Amino acid sequence: MNRLENFHESRNDLLGFLGSILEGVVSEDHLKAGSDTLKKQLRPLTEAFPFLDLCYVLDADGRQIGPNIVGKRCPSALGREGDGEDRSQRPYYRQARDSWGSVLTPPYFSSATRSLCVTVATPVRDEENRLLGIVVADIDYEQVMTLLEDDHRRKSIEPFFKGVYSIFSLGLLFVSLGLAIQAFHALGQVFGRAAKLSDTTRSFQATILLTLALAIFDLAKTIFEEEVLLRKDVRRHSATRRTLTRFIASILIAISIEALMLVFKFAITDPTHLTEAGWLVFAVVGLLIGLGVYVYLGARAEILLTHSKAREKQHATPPPPDGRRVGNPVRMKP
């Protein structure tokens, strides 16, 4: 599952969690006191929450009040910038301006941290619901999702597992290379001067070795891509299904070629063993059918589960009276 799919599934939970951090931090009195007071209010947030990269406050017109409050991952130079900058054209300002509660942007690439982040914006209103200002925070997307999913322990040991998978992939690659060398050696004997045209043993041997080398190479490539290079969501069955499908597909290709070679070989040298080769072909067909059924049923089950979760969220969070899909109202006392 890619990051955008993960975001859309977890958006409501993410909005509730991040909105609860910003709501109530800044009041009307803090806005009137100026940038120094706002800095004192926001600084504890960047110290308490490591996933918070950048924080600042806008006035009702979208102009920033005071410099940025930066987290540990951001360059310190950003902490001297931003004061007076007009952000009224930013999507999060427009959404928060028309909202009664916190709003959340989709993930985007942050130029400050060179990683994916989301922006949460919480409007500050008086008792008459007039907009006084907006508290804005840039959040490291990967860190906050790891925290929400309680996945930090697995993340901490993930480099070790990636290293182990890399070693095994490299070992399989060397095995594939060794088989390929033997295959080309046998192929060289086919075209040797002493080779008999009627002798097909070396030809079949070279074909079998090349097939095994290709299958093992494809297996090493699959393991390296799936377990080292690609980002996997271990909680979703689709990730396991994709890996298993690629692995079985590699095995199917190898066995299919081997079965075809055995059919040709026995047809030429010993037709009495054609039955065994035929059973191997039927085994390949059975494995292919089983894989198709597994992929179909797994995909159907995941679709039904996704729809069920979506219906549960719709029933659990009814829309506000005005029809806007926003967070909890924020009313600050003067």
UniProtKB/TrEMBL annotation:
Region listing for Disordered, in residue ranges: 310-334
TM spans (from-to): 163-184, 204-224, 244-267, 279-299
SUPFAM superfamilies assigned to the protein according to its UniProt record, in alphabetical order: Sensory domain-like (SSF103190)
CDD domains: PDC1_DGC_like (cd12914)
Localization, UniProt: Cell membrane
Membrane topology annotation: Multi-pass membrane protein
InterPro entries named among the record's database cross-references: dCache_1 (IPR033479), Sensor-like_sf (IPR029151)
Record-linked Gene3D superfamilies: PAS domain (3.30.450.20)
Pfam families with a match to the protein in the record: dCache_1
UniProtKB keywords: Cell membrane, Membrane, Transmembrane, Transmembrane helix
Chief location bin: membrane
A GO-annotated cellular component: plasma membrane
Domain Cache: 50-148
Protein name: Cache domain-containing protein
Organism the protein comes from: Leptospirillum ferriphilum
Lineage start: Bacteria, Pseudomonadati, Nitrospirota, Nitrospiria, Nitrospirales
